[in-house]
Design a protein that fits this description.
The structure is a single chain. By secondary structure, the chain is of the alpha+beta class. 33% of the residues lie in helices and 26% in strands. The protein contains 16 helices and 25 strands. The chain has a five-stranded parallel sheet. Strands 9, 10, 11, 15 and 16 form a five-stranded antiparallel sheet that branches. α4 runs antiparallel to α5.
Length: 459
């Protein structure tokens, strides 16, 4: 492997290019018309235009991206996250073209990307799952009253092919179930081309805990310290931290063992994340899903373990990962926490606010702070893609120290031209309940009035 095509854009494309450079690998960037002058294009050794601004006509155009690899003689394709990263079809196309796919095999992506199949795989691996419908609910093919009663209320109607909170609807009472199923079915068919859903029990005071895994494809699987991704808005993560606060060693170790069993059962290759929902009231936990790619929040794990997950993906493909350990622990009592800086307006229902970054000043990175950003002052936050400007990841010798470092870093952020969530995140960090780790997945909504009430950033 000598040359890697990055089938992505923005900060993750820049991140992969940097990792390739560190290992002496050449890089190829693909770009849409909207990204012709983007940072990842400037950084790469070679570049290929793949289409107009809309993602479906460029970054999601499988044939165009694969042709770019062929034109440039790339040996491998790194998908990053989002876009084609969890497309089993694209992974198969890459492998059939004789190229190295820097991720799990297409079969694993297909199974774990289907929530019903993933649930079955978890059960077969002895991983606990939430009560829900074993047979998937299809339009006109199920007794919803019986299935709802069996699952219990409240429950979630979830699109089988959904992800990131998309294609998910909460139902509080039996009389609302039929309408929720019909609505979610239509949304799933329109969005994913798969009009299939299932029911799953909803936990009111849930925490979202995930375990980073890394497999060599031969059955050896490394597990990493857990990440707590509980702070969310509309199922989209706002803050991620590691280790998870107020989690017993018994639960932590059990989740790690379960994640390893599931990954070993699939003979998992490359980086992935097994996600769990934790019932803080009953101190019980269940499998949620598996993400077959590098995560946005992988930097949190890197900071507490001193590893480089992207470099590990590359080294595995190069046959240089002889030092893969079974367990990676937290170094020197470190704690790390990440905030996503997004171009959105919290005061207007967090609507994305694309536009030109007339001013963009971010804090300087150091041993206690990672700053990942694929944009520069004068660049545009495009309406065609995700509104994330970048992410700040702080670490310290304690949770309090890591939070303080992140807050100080956010205080240095200066953005003009678009609205951002920086002040909102600082207010979130300042809540006493957050400091005491009294959080759950509905925490932001429960405290939204207080979080939006203050117009000034805390000193």
């Amino acid at each position: 492997m000598r040359k890697v095509l990055i089938a992505n854009r923005g900060e993750i494309a820049c991140r992969v290019i940097a990792a390739c450079r560190s290992l002496g690998l050449k890089t190829v960037a693909v770009y849409s018309e909207a990204d012709a002058a983007a940072l990842h294009v400037e950084m790469a050794d070679e570049v290929v235009a793949v289409g107009p601004a809309p993602a479906r006509k460029s970054y999601l155009d499988k044939a165009a991206v694969l042709e770019a690899a062929r034109q440039t003689g790339a040996d491998a394709v790194h998908p990053g996250y989002g876009f084609l990263s969890e497309s089993a079809e694209f992974a198969r196309m890459v492998e059939e073209a004789g190229l190295i796919w820097l991720g799990p095999d297409a079969g694993t992506i297909a199974v774990m990307g289907d929530k019903g199949a993933a649930r079955t795989a978890a059960i077969e691996a002895g991983v606990p799952v939430l009560s829900g419908t074993a047979p998937l609910v299809k339009e006109g093919g199920a007794d919803l009253d019986a299935l709802g009663a069996e699952t219990g209320f409240p429950l979630l109607v979830k699109a089988t092919a959904g992800g990131g909170g998309i294609g998910m609807r909460r139902v509080e009472a039996p009389e609302a179930l039929a309408d929720a199923v019909a609505t979610t079915l239509a949304h799933a068919e329109r969005t994913f081309g798969d009009g299939t859903v299932f029911l799953e029990r909803f936990i009111r005071r849930a925490r979202h805990i995930e375990i980073q895994v890394f497999g060599d494809g031969e059955g050896r699987v490394a597990v990493f310290p857990e990440r707590d991704c509980t702070l969310q808005r509309r199922y989209q993560k706002i803050l991620e931290e590691s280790p998870a606060p107020d989690l017993s060693d018994e639960v932590r170790d059990a989740m790690k063992a379960a994640a390893r069993r599931l990954a070993q059962a699939r003979r998992y290759r490359s980086a992935g994340t097994v996600e769990f929902v934790y019932d803080s009231e009953k101190e019980d936990w269940f499998f949620l899903e598996m993400n077959t790619r590098i995560q946005v929040e992988h930097r949190v794990t890197e900071m507490v373990t001193g590893t480089d997950l992207v470099a590990m993906q590359l080294r595995l493909a190069l046959g240089q990962l002889d030092d893969l350990a079974e367990d990676y622990g937290v170094l020197d009592g470190r704690w790390a926490i990440e905030a996503r800086l997004c171009a959105e307006d919290p005061q207007k229902k967090f609507l994305p606010r694309p536009g030109t970054l007339e001013r963009l000043e971010l804090p300087a990175a150091d041993a206690t702070l990672v700053v990942d950003c694929g944009l520069r002052q004068g660049d545009a936050v495009s309406p065609h893609y995700d509104s994330m400007i970048g992410k700040l990841v702080a670490c310290g010798p304690s949770r309090e120290a890591a939070i303080a470092r992140l807050d100080a870093a956010l205080a240095e952020v200066r953005v003009e031209g678009v609205a951002t969530n920086a002040a909102f995140v600082r207010r979130l960090l300042g809540l006493q309940a957050f400091a005491e780790a009294e959080v759950h997945t509905q925490f932001v909504d429960a405290n939204l009035a207080e979080l939006l009430a203050e117009e000034t950033t805390p000193a």
